[in-house]
Amino acid sequence: MDFGVCMHIVILGAGRVGESVAESLASELNDITIIDPDPDHVHQIEERLEVRGVVGNGIQPSVLRRAGIEDADLFIACASADETNLVACKVARTVFNVPTTVARLRSPEFEEGQALLGPDGFGVDHVICPEESVMRYILQLIDYPEALQVLEFSQGRAHLIAVRVTADGAFANHTIHEFRELFPAATMRVVAVYRNDKELQVDPTTRVQPGDEVFVLADKAKIRAVLGAIHNFDQPVRRVMIAGGGKVGLRLARSLIGQCQVKIIETDLKRCSYLAAELPSDTLVLHGDVADQDLLVQENVGEMDLFIALTSDDEDNILSSMLAKRLGARRVIALINRRIYADMMQGSTIDIAISPAQTVIGELLAHVRRGDVAAVHSLRRGDAEAIEGIARGDARTSRLVGRRVEQLELPHGARLCAVVRGVDDACEVLMPHHDLVIQESDHVIFFLENKRLLRPVEKLFQVSATFF
């Protein structure tokens, strides 16, 4: 595929996930068409984004044909019902031979790679589940209490972590070079520093201040030492209060069994009964308003290591999180669907604001990227990205293989974070020194300060017989 040509992507479903996916992909100059049966939703998205809208039932071939499915490179089905997404993917693959299909499926009965979803089944190439993605994201934040964001590369061997520098941490008021001399065992790469939401130039002389947001990449085996030096270790998370016992709340509570003491607050009495039947007896299920101050005080919210607001209402999540923080909860996380709310709340009284759509964007972006791309992660609420690709070819056909780091022609704003070499036990994470030579099959990780750099960086992973 020509790297200068945009992709034609058809999206079924103009809900929060579909709209966020369309916004992210349209910002990269892809040709986007979105289908939804609600004319108001379609009209609003057409006005706000540079996308084409089609009103209709997305499982009908005539509607898909009006959306231009015959020329689509990618079909993403993210309607609210699993059955709609399954049937739509089947039609897109069987009738229109769309090369790649992605389905949003909430049910755990359907897993990627199953024969039922394969070419002879529903024709689904990839499965996304926002609820599962949010749960995994939160579990990583519980595992690393110091972090604002945790991203994995190379099957989890390399971690890119965002952390806010504290006044009592060793990084505060030191340059990057000074910090490396103080902690030579904390092998890492500082890939970005943000101060008051503005990115600083990163070099050995960059001086970090308390409150700065720092992105560091390190081997998973060394990340705790790195975080401890930057932030001082927080206490491990042992007591968790979850506001909202919906799909995400239940999934999270199940995952924390045996790891944390969990309390769940749910407003719906019938749902409380269901939660109590599904969870162990030592998980306390409470019926009440998540923003009821008296209830939070009575249940000792001030003793919680983590308060997580996961209801379906943004305002309830924001209010209950702010209240929990004021009442003494050590750390609070709020699930916020509206991006403008998430941007406003991140780093305020609320420690971390999670957008459900943003947690799945990375999973989708890996299927949109050209070249041999292994992983893509959206950073800073979609403003920046980290991309992992596999170096293929040789010195004649590749812009990477056989070249020293200092010889790479990188666009301004793209930074080489690390090179992961080898497989399994022989795998190692290499920091990019100027004389490091990129080898064939190396996994190369880049940080991109904005999305305009995507196309030039993708070209680095293209193997071409006419490179010279």
How does this structure look, described?
The protein has helices at residues 16-26, 39-48, 61-66, 82-94, 130-143, 176-182, 223-231, 247-255, 269-278, 293-298, 314-326, 339-345, 356-368, 454-460; strands at residues 8-12, 31-36, 52-55, 74-77, 100-104, 126-128, 147-153, 158-164, 189-195, 198-199, 213-219, 239-243, 261-266, 284-287, 306-309, 332-335, 352-354, 373-379, 384-390, 414-421, 428-430, 443-448. It has 468 residues and is of the alpha/beta class. Strands 3-2-1-4-5-6 form a 6-stranded parallel β-sheet, with helices on both faces. Strands 14-13-12-15-16-17 form a 6-stranded parallel β-sheet, with helices on both faces. The longest helix has 14 residues, at 130-143. The relative contact order is 0.10. The mean pLDDT is 87.
Which key phrases capture this entry?
single chain, 468 residues, alpha/beta, 6-stranded parallel β-sheet, 29% helix
Based on DSSP secondary structure assignment, what is the total number of beta strands? Answer: 22
For the largest sheet, list the strands in their spatial order.
3-2-1-4-5-6
Overall shape: it is globular
Termini Cα gap: 19 Å
Uncertain runs are none
For the sheet with most strands, the description reads:
6 strands, parallel
What is the helical fraction, as a range of percent? 25-40%
The helix/strand class is alpha/beta
Q: State Rg.
A: 23 Å
Mean pLDDT across residues = 87
* Beta-strand content estimate: 15-25%
Q: Please report the number of helical segments.
A: 14
